[in-house]
């Protein structure tokens, strides 16, 4: 099979991109270093369908999140993907935070998420009897989704369209050929190496996307492509089913390193707290929940869930976020770049695809497909 487009990485974004590209072209290949799809960031998150509330006006995060939100719900309905449009409350737990809620509402409106509503303390209590707040901001378009079933849906499209997914395959280098195509060098777990030629290469390698970009000859530091790992612990909360009907978020932290320790529900009505944000300067993926974080999680959550006890918190899981910011840096947007300006026409790099990447995945796929179509 002649390879026309190679997608590196089979997380939710890579799968969505491969599914979109394979709708209109033959010879699409998706490479994944793990045994199956979605085994890293895509399966270790809050599984939230975001509304596009927090991001800077005009940013890719804002545009693609709002677009992805509007694409995901019909996709879930038609594809029978378990989901729920449960809504979200962002809560002010002190009077000085109420002005922040108004700022968030205005930013959301600028982004096209115009259905947010301010609610009073009494209305918060009516909506969520177990939540204490001075005021809240209700987002009815926020929801939850079975991320594995979404990825399985994209993978089925990839297969139906005749594209191929190759697991256990690590990309070691991408080399430009004289004819304008690219030679993709790969390695397998047994040490064997191989290579093949592809017209287009789309780097959706998640935690390793900056390394892959560097293997193309790009100076990742000069271009601002260097990734930084942030660990997010989660704790489950041992409460009765139905304790919360909606997601509950505090007012976000400065620079959006994280959105604070928030309470989410899953499709089985279990409540989880998290994630926090711990910088990993050595980029060593640490998937062990830090038991010492239990106290800080409890203190953060009881500001808006005052009846909980620390004994109700149990270690749940850890996710690693590939962020473009170090501690103290300003928030960074997604990087989705067709690299003709760097002398690499036919290369598309996606770097720093963290939240809201899950929500934005179908919109990101369409965006990438348009970049490729414009260069053909």
From TrEMBL:
What keywords is this UniProt entry annotated with? FAD, Flavoprotein, Oxidoreductase
**Positions of the FAD dependent oxidoreductase domain:** 6-371
Cofactor(s) recorded in Swiss-Prot or TrEMBL: FAD
Protein name (database record): Dehydrogenase
Organism this protein belongs to: Desulfosarcina widdelii
A single GO molecular function term of this UniProt record = (S)-2-hydroxyglutarate dehydrogenase activity
| Keyword Oxidoreductase (UniProt) | yes
Report the sequence similarity comment from the record: Belongs to the L2HGDH family.
Q: Name one Pfam family in it.
A: DAO
Its lineage opens with: Bacteria, Pseudomonadati, Thermodesulfobacteriota, Desulfobacteria, Desulfobacterales
What top-level branch of life does the organism fall under? Bacteria
InterPro entries, from UniProt?
FAD-dep_OxRdtase (IPR006076), FAD/NAD-bd_sf (IPR036188)
């Amino acid at each position: 099979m002649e390879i026309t487009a190679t997608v590196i990485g089979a997380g939710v974004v890579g799968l969505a991109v491969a599914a979109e590209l394979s709708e209109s072209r033959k010879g699409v290949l998706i490479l994944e270093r793990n045994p199956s799809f979605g085994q890293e960031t895509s399966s270790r998150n809050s599984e939230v369908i975001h509304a596009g509330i927090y991001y800077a006006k005009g940013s890719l995060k804002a545009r693609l999140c709002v677009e992805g939100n509007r694409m995901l719900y019909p996709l879930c309905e038609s594809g029978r993907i378990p989901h729920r449009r449960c809504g979200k409350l962002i809560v002010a737990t002190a009077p000085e935070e109420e002005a922040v809620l108004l700022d968030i509402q205005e930013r959301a409106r600028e982004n096209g998420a115009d259905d947010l509503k301010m609610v009073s303390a009494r209305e918060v209590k009516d909506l969520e009897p177990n939540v204490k707040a001075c005021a809240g901001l209700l987002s009815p378009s926020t929801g939850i989704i079975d991320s594995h079933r979404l990825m399985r849906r994209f993978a089925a499209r990839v297969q139906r369209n005749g594209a191929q997914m190759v697991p256990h395959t690590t990309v070691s280098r991408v080399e430009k050929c004289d004819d304008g195509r690219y030679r993709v060098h790969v390695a397998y777990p047994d040490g064997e190496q191989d290579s093949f030629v592809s017209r287009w290469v789309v780097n959706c390698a998640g935690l390793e996307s900056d390394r892959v970009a560097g293997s193309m000859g790009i100076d990742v530091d000069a271009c601002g492509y260097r990734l930084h790992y942030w660990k997010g612990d989660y704790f489950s909360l041992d409460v009765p089913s139905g304790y919360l009907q909606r997601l509950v978020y505090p007012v976000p932290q400065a620079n959006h390193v994280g959105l604070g320790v928030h309470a989410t529900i899953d499709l089985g009505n279990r409540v989880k707290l998290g994630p926090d944000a711990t910088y990993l300067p050595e980029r060593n993926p640490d998937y062990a929940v830090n038991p010492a974080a239990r106290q800080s999680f409890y203190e953060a959550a009881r500001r808006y869930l005052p009846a909980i006890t620390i004994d109700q918190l149990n270690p749940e899981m850890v996710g690693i976020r590939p962020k473009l910011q170090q501690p103290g840096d300003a928030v960074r947007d997604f990087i989705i770049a067709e690299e003709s300006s760097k002398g690499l026409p036919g290369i598309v790099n996606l770097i720093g695809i963290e939240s809201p990447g899950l929500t934005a995945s179908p919109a990101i796929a369409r965006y990438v497909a348009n970049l490729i179509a414009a260069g053909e």
